[in-house]
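Supplementary Methods, section 5.1.

A reviewer requested that the exact input to the structure prediction be made available. We therefore reproduce it here, unchanged from the version used in the analyses.
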Amino acid sequence: MFLISGIKQEDITEIRKIAKELQNELARITVERVPRAKVQFTNLGFIPQKVHTEELPNIFVGIDPGTTTGIAIIDSNGNILNAISRRELGISQILQIITEHGRALVVAADVNPVPQTVAKIARKLGAKIQTPNTTLPSSTEKRQYVDEHLPDTLPPHIGRLDAHSRDALFAALKAYYHEKPTLVRIKKVIIQEFPELKDHVNEIEALVIRQGMSVHQAARHVEKRLNQVRHQEREKAINVESQLVKEVQESVSIDKLQEQLRMKEQENSMLRKEMEELRELVQELRLEINYLKRQLDKQFSSRTKELYRTKRFKEQEREIQKLKNIVKQLKIRIKRQRATIRTLKQVSILWEKYQFLPLKILPAFSLHVIDRYKHQIFPNDVIVLLHPAGGGSKTAYELVKLEIRAILIPEDAPKLSDLARETFLEHAVPVIRVPLRECQDLNELLIDAGSLHKQNQLIIQHIHGMYLVSRQILDKTVRLEEARLQQELRKRNDALLLLERKQRAQKGNNKKEDLLPDHVDETVLERLLQEHTKEFLEIYGLDDETNTFEETSNDEAEEE
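The structure derived from this sequence is encoded token-by-token as follows.
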């Protein structure tokens, strides 16, 4: 049982509500008055009054919102109460910091337009919002303004000012000095015309600055409120007196109340015993639960734990190895892509600036290699066949189906088979043996290529894995070789035609005009070949180099 004295009637009602919420099946709480032997009177003049919000000190607040929020607070006398900066402050935390120092008259910011956070805080506090004019001050101007209006010594709890707290203090100082003439005028009017309200200057200042009232309107508003408060206090005193009278009347039944009190004490004693029994039962249940847990842990043997751990480790090792392989493949792929990018950059420079043509490479002359590289070969491509040995007519025909324009073979490479050469000849695909030169750098390539270009000589330049030739010389050489092949094909067709006519004559056609001699006149045949040569030179747009063509044809014939 607890005895508390000096509790008012309204407080007893609140205590009863709280006790009703706290009671449960195991406990019951009853709040009742304890009768006294005599009536005691209390002086009404000493009854404590609640603190009204009108009696709070007035303050000016500057806020610099953001991830790090700066807050500065100045009272109505220009004293700096606080200047802090903290990270990730919520609106509720900012409101708590401000209301701990007093009532905000003005909430100011150092930017225009006003940030949403500052506007929301001002609305919740019912304060006036103030921002700079359209010309925003710079950081240097803010620092100079704060240093000019900063006192020599700051309160010890403020500490060092950072950028955020300094910006907030700049906004608060601007707000204070903007409203300072109004504050001086309010105090002057109150002292001269309303001396009885000198203790309520804070409330008048709030009405004038926050609600825009005139000084006289605010003073009359405060007078009206004070009259209402006095009237309420008188009514409250009357209610207290009537309550005391009622208590006196209730004290008549003291014996009855004491009997009820004894019964309640017995009931409370029984409840305490029941609570003690329930606590013992709970303790026993906890002990049993702990015992069962220990038994369960024993059943889960160490072998099972080890097997689970080993299985888990193996899975993790496999996953790690799998990820390592993926990383390794990606590194190799990145390395290849970087090498390809460097090669493409070099090829782009050589193609655009120096007219060097990159050639497609065929490492070996076999069906497997052709099938592997055919997706890189397009119609009218010129390819380099590094090792031409081993392929026959079928292999050559696979290349012919790709519609390539010509084949370049290094001079020191093995000889191409006769069957393959015959297949290329039938389909007019030039096969040209060209010198292969290794270059160490780009300067060596350009110097050598310049001299070769003057000599009109075709050479394959090998540099950094690329096979390059001069585009102009390659086009001219391939066209000449194509013309030579076309001439040779026409020559063969003419020979076949003569042979066919001779066979037809031997079978029974004895007309003299259809018979041809066994020996073909070489002068007539040479004249026909010359006419065909001019025709092909005109088709391929070459210069009239008949003599050069004849010399080339004769050399090839001698080699055969």
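Confidence is low (pLDDT under 50) at residues 37-53, 511-522, 539-560. These observations are discussed further in the main text.
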